[in-house]
Design brief:
This protein is α+β, with helices and mostly antiparallel strands and about 525 residues long. The chain has eleven helices and 20 strands. The strands form six sheets. A five-stranded antiparallel β-sheet has the order 3-2-8-7-6. Strands 15-17-18-20-19 form a five-stranded mixed β-sheet, with helices on one face. It has a four-stranded antiparallel β-sheet with strand order 10-9-12-11, with helices on one face.
Length: about 525
């Protein structure tokens, strides 16, 4: 995992960054303007205007009803009704152009819109009248009859005055708080708009409703910027309202194929390079571990025969005069260890030459059975001590051309495997034969066998079978790899054949017969 973050991780991050940057660079966006649905907007505007007209008529009706009742209701009752009617701050009654009385409505603790303005008749104001005072034109007392009405704005925003002629001589003026009235209207319209706005909401139309003073009361599809494509105003006594609609903008994104392809190619190259480096690094680490293990095993393999040689030479020297037979046996063991050491050195040298591609084979005339017999003789004392019975079916006693040293090394490695790992089976089978100019050597044993998962791995350098096989001794892990490599260099192969018990290795080599030339003498 550590090697992943060191090698592949940065390259993956770089590849992802290049892909992201390539996508951003290759993106081409265009905006398509889709006109607002005029039909739906006009339908909604008609309903909305109707509702505003209804509310305007309803509210002014309440104001006129309140004004009319001032003529016969008790003062306290008029004040109570003023307090209950939304927005009413003061009710003034004028008779024949002069102020007759006034009634206070609900007064908030704080006046966010400033002080409540007074109402006076034109010509009656004095020098003490403030700038907030609303002056009623005298014409409204002279023109028209009962039922005349209208709105007059206050000098400062926040209040308006609604006046109405109750009878030819009496006029009522009501000071209205626009903020309180507007809040009540917004609450009502917010509940009312659910059904009328449903078609526009389903069509994703961009709509806003603005109330008096340009305040946004309601909006669909979030905030909108820029001039509206459609404005539908409506003016009533309650103020000026308008419906605004914007065209929809559809963003179409395309990508430049060349830029995107180039970014993808660079990212893929980085990714493949990272994978390749990761694989190579893994192989290098495994190879390094294998070589370290190989060096340790070779050191052990070299140390064991050297120790045995020194020990047996020492014991042979001590018993040379008193026990000659024991000395002879010890010297025989020394001879075996020297041969074992020679085979180990030969394997290491052969593997080294093969790795450096300097290994050369020499084809000479030889008898395969004789080569195998000489190699078997080197192992015979060790096999006898381990009580391993050798059965050999000879069938390659004719001369042929091949590399006898390579054949001897192959046979020695195969027999060595039986000696080390399969001696518990107490049997070694050898079969040599010549068929169709091919030499076949079969080496069998009755040991624990080779697990199926390791049938090919055992031919790789430094590989040894673990787990299912109880190894009697250590090994370098080169024997079978060298044997197969030599076989293939001679044009043949070394295979592990299926068997019910133990292991069966079969060597197949080209072996053309060697014909001797006979010279006859003429008498």
């Amino acid at each position: 995992m550590k090697s992943f973050w060191i090698t592949l991780g940065p390259l993956l991050a770089a590849a992802a960054l290049i892909l992201w940057g390539g996508e951003r660079l290759s993106r081409r966006t265009t905006e398509e303007r889709i006109p607002a649905d005029r039909g739906r907007l006009f339908d909604f505007a008609a309903q909305w205007r109707g509702e505003l007209d209804r509310l305007d008529a309803l509210y002014t009706g309440h104001l006129e009803n309140l004004a009319a009742h001032t003529l016969w209701l008790e003062r306290d009752e008029v004040i109570r009704r003023c307090e209950n009617l939304i927005g009413v701050r003061t009710l003034y009654v004028f008779n024949s152009g002069r102020k007759e009385t006034d009634f206070s409505g609900k007064r908030p603790l704080f006046h966010p819109n400033g002080r409540i303005p007074e109402v006076v008749v034109e010509g009656a104001e004095s020098s003490l009248v403030s700038r907030d005072t609303v002056v009623l034109p005298r014409e409204i007392f002279l023109e028209g009859g009962a039922g005349s009405r209208g709105w007059i704005p206050a000098p400062k925003p926040g209040h308006r005055v609604y006046w109405i002629r109750i009878n030819p001589t009496t006029l009522a003026a009501l000071v209205i708080d626009e903020e309180e009235l507007g809040q009540a209207l917004v609450r009502h319209l917010t509940e009312w708009q659910e059904n009328p706005l449903k078609p526009l909401r389903e069509a994703d139309e961009r709509v806003a409703i603005e109330g008096p003073g340009g305040k946004t009361v309601l909006t669909l599809q979030g905030e909108h910027s820029g001039p509206a494509a459609l404005v539908l105003p409506h003016r009533v006594g309650l103020g000026e309202w308008q419906v605004l609609a914007w065209d929809k903008l559809k963003t179409n994104a395309t990508h430049d194929t060349a830029t995107l392809t180039l970014a993808g190619a660079i990212a893929c190259t980085l990714l493949l390079a990272g994978i390749y480096l990761q694989i190579q690094q893994g192989r290098a680490l495994r190879l390094a571990e294998e070589r370290v293990s190989f060096v340790n095993r070779v050191s052990h393999e070299l140390g064991t025969p050297l120790t045995n040689i020194l020990l047996n030479l020492d014991l042979a020297g001590r018993s040379l005069e008193t026990r000659p037979a024991e000395s002879q046996r010890r010297l025989t063991l020394v001879h075996e260890e020297v041969r074992r050491l020679g085979r180990l050195v030969s394997n290491v040298l052969t593997f080294s030459r093969s790795e450096r591609k300097t290994l050369e084979l020499t084809l000479t005339t030889c008898v395969p059975d004789q080569v195998v017999e000489d190699m078997l003789a080197q192992f015979q004392p060790s096999l006898d001590r381990r009580k391993v019975v050798v059965e050999w079916q000879r069938g390659a006693s004719n001369s042929t051309k091949l590399d006898p040293d390579a054949l001897a090394q192959i046979a020695g490695n195969l027999i060595s495997n039986v000696e080390k790992y399969a001696n518990a089976g107490s049997w070694l089978g050898l079969t040599t034969s010549m068929e169709n100019d091919r030499l076949k050597l079969r080496v069998s044993d009755r040991g624990p066998g080779i697990p199926a998962r390791s049938r090919e791995k055992i031919f790789e350098p430094f590989e040894r079978v673990h787990g299912g096989v109880s190894e009697g001794s250590s090994g370098t892990g080169l024997g079978l790899a060298i044997a197969r490599d030599l076989a293939r260099r001679m044009g043949g192969d070394l295979l592990l054949r299926s068997s019910e018990t133990g292991s069966v290795f079969e060597l197949d080599l080209p072996a053309p017969p060697h014909l001797a030339v006979v010279h006859s003498e003429v008498a």
